[in-house]
Design a protein that fits this description.
This protein has ten helices and 16 strands. It is α/β, with parallel strands linked by helices and 314 residues long. The relative contact order is 0.16.
Length: 314
């Protein structure tokens, strides 16, 4: 029997519980992956608590979208993968489990130089950052302001933008500034006087901004510094982004992603694995917890008590 974390009602992390479930069987185009690490993301808690709109619960609801593991079996018509391959998983519901059926188009081969925890930390953070920057047209010569640069999406955005030739200014608490410098960003502290500090760090001006903080300060600073509002986006303030005349990606945005934006999110998995393998990308790893402690993992994410990507280990 496989094991999985589910919930049968919306609520606090305590609604999460571990169950046994029949082993999945691969259908055409699928692989059965034995999960080695499952990535924990803020969206997992928002769905569990119904802070993000969700349909009514009619049966135990699985949790998690990102993971990494080893292929145990393959369905008909699968090419490019073999039993025993190490893989990273994106956008597949139920990664908080020991075994999972995954469409092969949502897998990326994971080289030995990339750990399972790193592979589990790619999907949502890197996919969100990559798609947002592509949608904003970030390229060589841009000056990008990233709010919440030390978060998992922020760190990914910093690294992609630097790799593409942009100058990056990133907000964070002073304790995280050295880490951002190592990633190639110019760090600035948030709080009173932020606009002046960003102007001092980027006297040539800011051309594009990505908000991962969701604060009024982040929105107001972006509006004050970026002339083209179509080059300002938030991944947090989806419902009211239109009130500011800026773009929203995820964050409960009423505007769905385009086919191109969804393609960029998919493209990010292979792109990030390649950068990790070459040593040109870093994922900050946090605590590893047993699968049965999923509730504790959600508490850590929601309280901000742990830095780095939290992963669950079946």
């Amino acid at each position: 029997m496989a094991r999985a974390i589910v919930y049968t009602e919306f609520g606090s992390p305590e609604v999460l519980h571990l169950i046994e479930t029949p082993d999945p069987v691969a259908t055409a185009g699928e692989a059965i992956v034995r999960i080695v690490a499952a990535g924990v993301n803020p969206i997992d808690g928002k769905l569990r608590s119904a802070k993000r709109p969700s349909p009514p619960i009619t049966e135990p609801r699985a949790v998690g979208f990102d993971g990494a593991g080893v292929i145990e079996s393959l369905g008909d018509g699968v090419e490019g993968f073999a039993v025993g391959d190490r893989v990273a998983i994106r956008d597949t519901v139920g990664t908080y489990s020991s075994l999972l059926a995954v469409p092969v188009e949502r897998l990326a081969a994971l080289p030995d130089s990339v750990t399972a925890a790193e592979g589990a930390g790619i999907g949502i953070p890197a996919g969100t950052a990559y798609q947002a920057l592509k949608s904003l047209g970030v390229t060589e010569g841009d000056v990008l302001l990233v709010h919440a640069g030390s978060g998992s999406v922020g760190q990914a955005a910093v690294q992609f933008a630097v790799a593409w030739g942009a100058t990056v200014i990133a907000t964070a608490s002073p304790a995280r500034h050295e880490q951002l410098r190592e990633l190639g960003a110019i760090p600035v502290a948030y709080g009173d006087g932020l606009i002046d500090r960003v102007r001092a760090a980027a006297p040539q001006g800011v051309t594009v901004a990505l908000d991962g903080a969701g604060t009024d300060e982040a929105i107001e600073t972006s509006l004050a510094l970026v002339a083209d509002r179509d080059r300002i986006a938030t991944i947090v303030r989806g419902p009211d982004a239109a009130d500011f005349g800026i773009r929203a990606f995820s964050g409960g945005s009423p505007i769905p992603l385009t086919e191109q934006e969804l393609a960029w999110r998919a493209e990010a998995l292979d792109a990030t694995v390649a950068l990790l393998a070459s040593g040109d990308f870093t994922i900050e790893l946090g605590p590893e917890l047993p699968l049965a402690e999923a509730a504790r993992a959600h508490e850590l994410v929601e309280s901000g008590a742990a830095s780095g990507k939290i992963v669950l280990v079946p």
